[in-house]
């Protein structure tokens, strides 16, 4: 709550406020009051949930915090109904595959559910999480996932489109960049 109070004079500079850091012992429900104030101020909510914490943390982030995007969220695969809900509601998941392996969420990248989530219609993206600490900037996350998960051109195209869909860019900007991805993909014969 103190952080929110300190941010309030600058809130016009922000689009969203996110819950982050270690999930262990920190379910989203602990932060419901502060994120109610964030929403009252007209800002979007994003939440780190379902990486080290269970799928129930993703549900709490959606139901209690009313998060419009979930950072990580990979453990949703343990709850098939949640995966369907995420796909149906088009809730973006900003996965960070290399850090998920580094943190021990998965023993090796080949176990990561990125491709499985894409196939299930979830608006999943591949991102970098504290690259100097976890190893791997954005390009390395993408290239390593392409190799380890045997991603096809259609998967890579969908990841790129999802990154714009899940952004907080104004709608005309989103459409412009998604159109650019589609043009490039068509030119490369990737669709």
Percent of residues in helices comes to 40-55%
Overall tally of structural domains: 1
**Distance between the terminal alpha carbons, to the nearest Å?**
47 Å
* Rg value: 17 Å
Annotated CATH architecture: Alpha-Beta Barrel
CATH C-level category: Alpha Beta
Average pLDDT works out at: 95
Portion in beta strands:
5-15%
**Which class of secondary structure composition applies to the elements?**
alpha/beta
Stated plainly, the CATH topology is called TIM Barrel
Summarize the biggest pleated sheet. Answer: 5 strands, parallel
How many separate helices? 10
Can you count the beta strands? 5
Global outline: globular
**Helix and strand run:** HEHEHEHEHHEHHHH
In CATH terms, the superfamily is: Metal-dependent hydrolases
Please render the helix and strand layout as text.
Layout: H1 2-7, E1 16-19, H2 32-40, E2 44-49, H3 55-63, E3 69-72, H4 80-89, E4 93-95, H5 97-102, H6 114-119, E5 124-126, H7 131-134, H8 138-149, H9 153-165, H10 171-187
Parallel strand pairs: 1-2, 2-3, 3-4, 4-5
Helix pairs in contact: 9-10
Q: What keywords describe this structure?
A:
about 190 residues, alpha/beta, TIM Barrel, five-stranded parallel β-sheet, 10 helices, about 10% strand
Tell me what the structure shows.
Strands 1-2-3-4-5 form a five-stranded parallel beta sheet. The chain has one domain: TIM Barrel (Alpha-Beta Barrel). The protein is an alpha/beta fold and 191 residues long. Strand 2 (44-49), helix 3 and strand 3 (69-72) form a beta-alpha-beta unit. It is built from ten helices and five strands. The longest helix is centred in the C-terminal third of the chain and has 17 residues, at 171-187.
